[in-house]
Write a structure and sequence with these properties.
One of its GO terms (molecular function) is metal ion binding. With 302 residues, this protein is of the alpha/beta class. The protein has helices spanning 2-23, 92-100, 146-162, 184-199, 217-225, 248-258, 272-284, and strands at 27-35, 39-46, 56-60, 70-73, 83-88, 118-123, 135-141, 170-177, 206-212, 242-243, 263-270, 294-301.
């Protein structure tokens, strides 16, 4: 038995030593941005740090807890000179980080007062393959929208730098959330992308749909009154917020009809139930003919 145990244990110890060494490297917080509804953005720099879109890191703040490590998806793009995470304040540890960064104070905080941060990673996810397809469907549910912030930023940087060499030609983005206010920072990102694409006369590059799954009658009445306005009253985007859940069968059939003979990447960050639905739709809407349309499903669950 020991012959079978020694090898895996040795590899495990090596992996723990590498993680410990990486966690001891110096991390500098360059900026803390407070977003609405108790969401903070930490922009950081670390020597030798290299990332790809959609990856995540483990974060430890000794000022809050000397032992706790928490995973956060990177929301910056590889083209930016920093890496960032967005943290929503929903528990004791995130509340402690919020206070340690001085976000509970009204006055401006000096950089030297910011807490020390340890970072381990980055670690890969399925979202890294997004540039392997010409057509992609990105589906983010709730907090699962965060990896697509990195993806959309990176796509736009690549598009502005050299659009002719960018394999990706069309993005269908779906955002399912119970309360858009909790992720107002992401709506700001979409607004920026929307405005820049219109300036370049390529508004068709990104097609997005926002579904509000948790709503009541007063919200529906407010939506009906302001439906004819140019911008959506909830997100400020030209695309109107939709209520309820998508009809995935119709969405897949529509996209398949618009892109015959294509390999379409379907990327999900969301709950397991939604993953099962999209997986079944990807299989049922893919053709047996190798020259026909094929949906390739990729997921990461939380």
């Amino acid at each position: 038995t020991w012959k079978w145990v020694v090898g895996p244990m040795f590899l495990y110890l090596c992996e723990r030593l590498v993680r410990f060494w990486r966690s001891q490297q110096k991390v500098v917080i360059t900026k803390v941005v407070i977003h609405p509804f108790k969401t903070i953005e930490l922009q950081m720099m670390k020597k030798g740090f290299k990332m790809e879109v959609g990856q995540y890191i483990f974060v430890k703040c000794p000022a809050v807890s000397k032992l706790e490590w928490h995973p956060f998806t990177l929301t910056s793009a590889p083209e930016e000179d920093y890496f960032s995470i967005h943290v929503r304040i929903v528990g004791d540890w995130t509340e402690g980080l919020f206070n340690a960064c001085g976000c509970d104070k009204q006055e401006f905080q000096e950089a030297w007062k910011l807490p020390k941060i340890a970072v381990d990673g980055p670690f890969g996810t399925a979202s890294e393959d997004v540039f392997s397809y010409e057509i992609v469907m990105l589906v983010g549910a709730g907090i699962g929208v965060t990896p697509f912030a990195s993806v959309l930023k990176s796509v736009w940087y690549k598009y502005c730098h050299d659009a002719t060499n960018l394999k990706l030609k069309k993005i269908y983005f779906y955002w399912l959330c119970r309360d858009t206010h909790a992720f107002e920072w992401f709506a700001d990102l979409l607004q920026s992308l929307e405005a820049q694409m219109q300036e370049r006369n390529n508004a068709e590059f990104l097609s997005y749909n926002i579904y509000l799954t948790g709503w009541d009658e007063s919200q529906a009445t407010h939506f009906a009154v302001h439906h004819e306005e140019e911008k959506d009253v909830i997100t400020g985007l030209k695309q109107k917020t939709l209520y309820g859940r998508p009809n995935w069968e119709n969405e897949f059939k529509t996209i398949a009809g618009q892109h015959p003979g294509s390999r379409i990447g379907v990327f999900l960050c969301g709950p397991e139930g939604l993953a099962d639905t999209l997986s079944k739709q990807s299989i049922s809407n893919s053709e047996a003919d190798p020259r026909g349309v094929h949906f390739i499903f990729n997921k990461e669950n939380f």
